[in-house]
Amino acid sequence: SNCIQTSKYNIVTFLPVNLFEQFQEVANTYFLFLLILQLIPQISSLSWFTTIVPLVLVLTITAVKDATDDYFRHKSDNQVNNRQSQVLINGTLRQEQWMNVRVGDIIKLENNHFVAADLLLLSSSEPHGLCYIETAELDGETNMKVRQAIPVTSELGDIGQLAQFDGEVICEPPNNKLDKFSGTLYWKENKYPLSNQNMLLRGCMLRNTEWCFGLVVFAGPDTKLMQNSGRTKFKRTSIDRLMNTLVLWIFGFLVCMGVILAIGNAIWEHEVGARFQLYLPWDEAVDSAFFSGFLSFWSYIIILNTVVPISLYVR
């Protein structure tokens, strides 16, 4: 298929995938962890409402931004996939959408038209099968480049002759090397070497050439343009990575504080609190000073949670 997709989400996958990406931010994961702790009555010292509101607000704003960006990717994909191309089908030229072009199709390009897929140039309106292309979308260069059909196919300017073309191309697998191509055309019991000079790559524009015909060799995600673009990934800047590291260190500091305070709580309960059980009884689930210290550790993690957000505003 010659259909391309640069978008990351669809209606079904947006929520789970976007949340998964957002929780790769350590701060978001920290606040989710904190929210879970606040839902446990035995250790919760603050209302879960104080955590869930800012967390949901941050997640929602980021999700709206990501959804907007992906909407424009979908829009761009649809625009490109629905471009029109002339495809030689059963001896006649037909208008087809780019997404419907397939490997092995012969298509006709006209001057100032974008190349729909990676093509083996078969013939052109210029002498000796020459054509001129602009590769700005591929490599940023605006100067014209010359491509040439191999002599044995350069005479196939007639649609009837092209419809009878039954050559077979054996070539390298899809790759992202824009300036290299290696292959062989087998036709009429002969073989002809192919190079990058015989190829028109997707994203190029035909210039100063009335028309040309090409055989689709690579389509869609297999084209060199798409091989270079790669998959759309969750953007993570150096600041994001630094923030993740800082939050981990701060969380480690918070855990150390919680451990120290929990040990102090356990010692106090064992040495002093145990004597006043009549007036200061332990909760129902607590049956020892050690377990009281264990529960108080998580309570201190909740109480001291502001250490992380305050530190984020780190300048």
From TrEMBL:
Bilayer-spanning residue ranges: 31-64, 246-268, 288-314
Biological processes, Gene Ontology terms: Golgi organization; phospholipid translocation
Top-level lineage group: Eukaryota
P-type ATPase N-terminal domain segment(s): 1-52
Keyword tags: Membrane, Transmembrane, Transmembrane helix
Single Gene Ontology MF annotation: ATPase-coupled intramembrane lipid transporter activity
GO cellular component: plasma membrane; trans-Golgi network
Keyword Transmembrane helix carried by entry: yes
InterPro entries noted in UniProt: ATPase_P-typ_TM_dom_sf (IPR023298), ATPase_P-typ_transduc_dom_A_sf (IPR008250), P-type_ATPase_N (IPR032631)
PANTHER family named in the record: PHOSPHOLIPID-TRANSPORTING ATPASE ID, PROBABLE PHOSPHOLIPID-TRANSPORTING ATPASE
Protein's name in the database: ATPase, class I, type 8B, member 2
Source organism: Chelydra serpentina
